[in-house]
Amino acid sequence: MGIHFPSWRIILSVLLVLLFVRSSSSRMISDSQLKDSAGDDSQLLIKNGLVDHQMHHMDPSVHVFFTLDDLKAGKKIPIYFPNKDPSDSPHLLSREETNSIPFSLSQLPYLLELFSLSKDSPQAKAMEYTLRQCDVEPTEEETKICATSLESMLDFVRATFGLDTQFKVLTTNYLTYPVTQLQNYTVLEDPKEILAEKIVGCHVMPYPYVVYYCHKAEGGDRLFEMLLGGEDGERVQAPGICHTDTSQWDRDHVSFRLLKMEPGTSPVCHFFPANNILWVPLSA
Ligand SMILES: *[C@@H]1O[C@H](CO)[C@@H](O)[C@H](O)[C@H]1NC(C)=O
């Protein structure tokens, strides 16, 4: 059951790398840039007075965790949903396009030149991190992939579910826009459990173009569809996943601190950023 751990470690590390990239860039923001409000995350954070919080305590974006007790209409959960217009998100390149760009740690010097990044920049570190994660050989069967195109993501999903299985996609949907990034959301309806035998989760990695880290969820993970209401009338439809066995997780894992729990005591659930994709068989 320790197989939860590698994918978890990666998701958590991605959070940390994104924080690293973002806090480095916010340090470089000048006062004049602050005054004109481009939609950049780090500027929003500064304006909301959250930077101190982010730098010295915890990034507000770690507020994605909840417990099984919260899966009831009327419960309130503090959640951070990034206030980015999802339709502005970069899209996946096609396989033809990515075939002409190497994707390997050994090619990093060439890639840094291609994307005009200096070797010591936070972006270069993030690229190196992603390539390192993606170079790792899968342990037993193929349970994860770094997809640089929609085609390779679909190939992985088909290989996981079987060629004859139809499937659907679940993502976090902002039914209203914009949303307040961190606030208490109310669970508006009793969450619906999706009884999927297999689940594939795909998370965006820090990289100059869209790269998804996709992995198969474990037996024992439970998936729910939730409808959430913000304090200003925002509505968010969001899948939430609950990991039943956390006994192998690091006891310093941020979720334990937020939920005031210990590893292995009770399930840890979390939401997903809007650009993440969950795949489940249609029969579910
Ligand atoms: C959520 O509600 C709790 C309890 O009322 C409060 O202490 C907390 O500050 C609120 N969090 C946010 C982000 O508004």
UniProtKB/TrEMBL annotation:
InterPro entries cross-referenced by the UniProt entry: BURP (IPR044816), BURP_dom (IPR004873)
Keywords: Signal
Domain (BURP): residue spans on this chain: 65-282
Keyword Oxidoreductase assigned: no
Signal peptide extent: 1-26
Classification via Pfam families: BURP (PF03181)
SMART domains: BURP
Descriptive protein name: BURP domain-containing protein
Organism: Hevea brasiliensis (Para rubber tree)
